[in-house]
Amino acid sequence: MKFIELHEHFENWANMKFAENYDNVGLIVGEWHTTINGALINLDVTEEVLEEAEQLGCNLIITHHPIWFQARKKLNGDDFVSRILLRAIRKNIGLYALHTNLDNISTGVNYKIANILGMKDLSFMKKHPNLEIGSGLMGKLKTPMPVYEFMDLLKKSFEAPMIRYSKAKQKEIIQKVGVCGGAGSFLIPEAIQNELDAFITADITYHKFFENESQFYLIDIGHFESEQYTSEIIFDFIKNIANFAVYLSKIQTNPVHYY
Fold it and tell me: Which one of 84, 151, 201, 216 has the minimum C-beta count within 10 Å?
């Protein structure tokens, strides 16, 4: 299978047109008609992940986060992004990203989070106009639970060392929940509008924590923690179509540590 053929499969699942305008998805490094020897999947591409791909004999790395977002005037090895790009080119390793196009489909990143939490009756928090996609998912827990029992479930399910949150007034039971992997504070108005009991996301800044208006529990479980299972989504999709070796990376790329 060539890069272009795998790309066509991805386009039937998480089409590039579903990505946000600021994003950089698809084949970032590589040539379309290269034959795939093996593919390595991770949330991010780092120099350690590149080393892992080389050792496994993979000439394609598929990630959720693109290594390259904005225009660059130089590739001179002075920063980690250009070092990764240069090494990938030298080693003939393609870099492919499925980012917000995978966030915005109903079977993508947020579906995985909702599934882990055992949610049902799912729908988009914010439907995108004219497309069958949207931002965030919301639904109900199969069994309502007390707030701090729910917090314990989050910590255990996502291996979160800590949880940051702002409280809701007069909410002791959690049932109606919204989820958005990564930075999802832009969906706070939708969480209020849909009268959620809790909204789980990441990268919430101090002032954003006020915006829940004490109407729902606004919960930050960490960016990596919220998206760590994305590699499994991609792996499960590829394994049904690949005629090449596919590996889940063993490198944990979370740059955030807790003390």
Answer: 151
- Percent of the chain with pLDDT strictly greater than 70: 100
CB 254 within 8 A of CB 238: no
- Report all structural domains of the chain as residue ranges with CATH numbers, in order of start: 3-102 (3.40.1390.30), 104-224 (3.40.1390.30)
Regarding pTM above 0.85, the answer is yes
CB atoms < 10 A from the CB of 58, how many?
25
Model confidence at 73, in pLDDT bands (50, 70, 90)? confident
One-letter identity of residue 136:
G
| Burial call 220-252: b when 16+ CB within 10 Å, e when fewer | bbbbbbbbbbbbebbbebbeeebeeebbebebe
Question: What pLDDT is recorded for position 198?
Answer: 98
Contacts 24+ apart (CB under 8 A), 246-250: 246/38, 246/39, 246/41, 247/38, 247/39, 247/40, 247/41, 247/56, 247/58, 248/41, 248/42, 249/40, 249/41, 249/42, 249/49, 249/52, 250/52
Residue pair 147/155 in contact (Cβ under 8 Å)? The answer is: no
Cβ proximity of 5 and 24 under 8 Å? no
Which of 203, 200, 150, 159 minimizes the C-alpha distance to 180?
200
User: In the prediction, which pLDDT does 131 show?
Assistant: 86
User: Is it the case that residue 170 has pLDDT exceeding 90?
Assistant: no
Helix axes 80-90, 47-56, angle to 10 degrees: 20
Q: How far is CA 126 from CA 55, 108, 112, 175, 228, in A?
A: 42, 15, 17, 19, 23
Whether 4 contacts 23, CB under 8 Å: no
Q: Which helix (H) or strand (E) holds 119?
A: strand 119-127
